[in-house]
């Protein structure tokens, strides 16, 4: 997902994006949605969240 799309999603959740990096934005979105803040944490292989919106970009 492109950064502009991520910022738009964050804005919908009332997250102030400022100069946040992509990974920080995604983790803030995960938190706002009540999900584990696991993006780019190395858990992609074991997380079991195959339908996660961020799956393609996650490590």
From TrEMBL:
Sequence ranges assigned to domain Rho termination factor-like N-terminal in this UniProt record: 1-33
A Pfam family reported for this protein in Swiss-Prot or TrEMBL: Rho_N
Record-linked InterPro entries: Rho-like_N
Top-level taxon: Bacteria
UniProt protein name: SAP domain-containing protein
Lineage: Bacteria, Pseudomonadati, Thermodesulfobacteriota, Desulfuromonadia, Geobacterales
């Amino acid at each position: 997902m492109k950064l502009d799309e991520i910022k738009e999603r964050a804005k919908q959740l009332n997250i102030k994006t400022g100069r946040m990096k992509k990974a920080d934005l995604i983790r803030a979105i995960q938190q706002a949605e009540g999900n584990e803040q696991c993006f780019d944490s190395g858990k992609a292989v074991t997380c079991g969240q195959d339908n996660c919106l961020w799956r393609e970009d996650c490590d």
